[in-house]
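Known limitations

Files may contain more than one protein. Parsers should not assume a single record per file. Below, a two-record file is shown to illustrate correct handling: read the sequence, read the token line, then continue until end of file.
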Amino acid sequence: MFGRLLLLFIFVPVIELYLLGLLIGRINLMPTIGLIVLTGFFGAALARWQGLSTMRKIQEEMRQGRAPAQELVEGVMILIGGIALMTPGILTDLFGFAMLLPGIRTSIARKLKESLVQSVTAGTSDRSKGSRNQDDDVIDI
């Protein structure tokens, strides 16, 4: 886990700076800054639009008496995508837009949900196979 965080907070910004430097070299400083600001505004608007759409889907699922699991996962992905788009950089913009595009987001959310269900089911079945005793309910601090 620590290694992944190290990658996220050290190497991604270094790559972002490198890519921004290349972009500045190609189109100059002011157009690059304009592009960063434009993707931030466009990303915030897209995140708001997609977020409201997902909220409507969540409400509809709940009205019909179904758990909105898929929609909740997508809602978190929209939030993460919006934050990524407001972060200056090329990689974060690509990631953010991917999280906001319904087709890509739905596919990833479905896989995440299935993976989570499998891991919870596997954990539950492992626990039910073993013998249960009083120590199972004790939390050591």
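...continuing to the second record:
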Amino acid sequence: MTKITFMGAGSSVFAKNVLGDCMCTDSLKDVHIALYDIDGVRLAESMHMIKVLNANINNGRAKITSHLGVEKRKEALRDANFVVNAIQVGGYDPSTIVDFEIPKKYGLRQTIADTIGIGGIFRALRTIPVMWDFARDMEQVCPNAWLLNYTNPMSALTGAMLRHTGVKTVGLCHSVQVCSKSLLETLGMKFDEKTVRNKIAGINHMGWLLEITQDGKDLYPEIKVLAKKKITEWRKAGAEKNGNMIRLAMMQHFGYYITESSEHMAEYVPYWIKKQYPGLIEEFNIPLDEYPRRCISQIEGWKKRSKEIVDNPNLTHEKTHEYGSVIMNAIVTDVPAQIGGNVLNNGLISNLPDEAVVEVPCLVDSNGIQGCYVGRLPEQCAALNRTNINVHLLTIEAAATLKKEHIYHAAMLDPHTSAELTLDEIKKMCDEMIKAHGNMMPKYK
């Protein structure tokens, strides 16, 4: 029997998406699903939900078990074939609050703070030690399992696993699947998934839509004409704004559309959130402090939504665009599939560092997950990727060595942070954040 262990199963909505997809897949119906979390209330909610889903869409064929707390972690992982990672270390309170409020004291504003930037760095430093604990257990009790990592910061966490453990790991995101659709619909163009083809490569949250065609026709010329017109209209004072303005503007300047949303992209580069140009925030519709707002909204709305999901005896599910079940099915059945995955570069993108984690097309079959060769990115695209890769690599170095200086280095090389603060301010801010996070991070020297 195939075993799927879900780490961070208290994330009920995401657990429903990934595990519901599995139950809708013929080769994965007769599975053992092990749910693991350190929050007993949320784990119980997800356990109830998955049992209902199993009965309603899977005729009760899956075996469901729950495992609470660190002392039950090995039990949850034992003999797993696939481990899905969806944890968030520190949660909204206190960690996300620290990630936003201390930088704000220094005049450094953020939108999401989960990928790079000062918030992304510290999220990684909280999470990597926990994932290395998972890895040590996996090496003992399920050494052949694949870890499907959905947790951010994707590149830093996946890189930490691939470079410092023996666990087979792939990083998975949602942005590749919806990239072309978001672009065409933003511009009022028709999207047809049967005829639109694309090629995407780069790094997580800054992958590049290198090609987009429909029935073999290159759509980029029409896209760029429409984008220029739309951006010109939306930038006018008092005009109705659009949520994709940063992505379209970056395409205007660098030639290619980006996989991740504008609120993310705004904090990955030094051009948009600037103290000396505050008007850019309104002009380009940049939602500062967006992630804390989402957290508060989700916390407040969960009681109502939990009744719709957790307490719904008629709960059902339709397959999502998540790659998890696609990967598992391809490995179990040896029927090949293609995904967009995050893997060690090792020459797949020839003008990015080998030790970087890149997001590229991957072939999946019974041999596992193999990244496909891409070659060179357009140099301006690779150059922007490298500015983010610098932060990924130094964050991993900090976690591996426990040297505080590498935390400083990661922050000093971060594009947004370095554009706004002096070196002394960055160091002081990092020290304050290290202290504020307390036991959520290991001791640094």
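Parsers that stop after the first record will miss the second one. For reference, the second record is described as follows. The longest helix spans residues 117-141.
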